[in-house]
Design goal:
The chain is α+β, with helices and mostly antiparallel strands and 227 residues long. It folds into two domains: 2-148; 162-221. The protein is 38% helix and 28% strand. The protein has seven helices and nine strands. Strands 1, 2, 3, 4, 5, 6, 7, 8 and 9 form a nine-stranded antiparallel beta sheet that branches.
């Protein structure tokens, strides 16, 4: 079993008007698509993560005619939107590719700055190559990683959102994790154009997630005495 990670780019910066609406909205940043599928009526479903307020996301969805139904909830600094929508022809082709070529999408799909999306596909090498050759002409595709796929529930960095990885890498580069500490939340915030409180909250959430996953992995293989 092999995997390939591909970054797809559309010349408009988004793949259909739904992404364009989010991209043009103030105070909303697209982060990732955690689940996606075509449904029997020809429409599609996304579980979309966006950085920002749920109410702002609802306002965008209310002004676009592409979303036929949706539900939005707030979780920390992120809003998660379950969206039923009319997919563009390009989105239909992309979402139909895994079934057409016998592949699996290794979620989440990461939405990068500029609107390009990072997708990891898993399957047999011949099927992966065939799927890549079928990339719509309107898109450019850049392979960033390829290799043998070994299922690993503890891919700690890959389990973080794009924004979380950005904050963590910035904190590390500035010396936040050195002893003695060489950076503050304010230093990190200045690099990322956010508030110190925001930077601190994101880092604490990252640390809690990583430590929790490490402990869960350890106790599965090496039970803690007394547990």
């Amino acid at each position: 079993m092999r995997f390939v990670t591909i970054v797809f780019r559309h010349p408009d910066g988004w793949f259909q008007s739904l992404g364009g609406a989010f991209a043009q909205a103030d105070d909303i940043t697209r982060v990732a698509v955690h689940s996606q599928q075509l449904v029997a009526d020809g429409q599609a479903i996304y579980l979309y993560e966006l950085e920002g307020e749920a109410e702002k996301v609802r306002e965008v969805l209310e002004t676009t005619d592409i979303a036929t139904s949706y539900d939005v909830v707030q979780s920390g600094e992120s809003a998660f939107a379950y969206i039923h929508f009319e997919p563009s022809p390009i989105i239909k082709r992309l979402l139909g590719a895994p079934e057409r070529y016998g592949l699996v999408i290794d979620d989440p799909i990461i939405v990068q700055d500029g609107g390009q999306v990072e997708v990891t596909l898993v399957g047999e090498e011949d099927d992966l190559q065939e799927a890549l050759r079928s990339t719509p002409d309107e898109l450019s595709a850049t392979i960033t990683r390829v290799g043998d796929h070994t299922p690993n529930p503890n891919q700690l960095l890959l389990n973080l959102s794009h924004r979380q990885r950005e904050v963590l890498k910035t904190a590390y580069a500035l010396g936040y994790y050195r002893q003695p500490r060489e950076a503050t939340y304010g230093d990190i915030a200045a690099e990322l154009d956010c508030s110190p409180t925001n930077a601190g909250e994101i880092l604490r959430r990252i640390e809690n997630q990583i430590v929790g996953e490490l402990l869960a992995s350890h106790t599965e293989t090496n039970p803690i005495p007394g547990d």
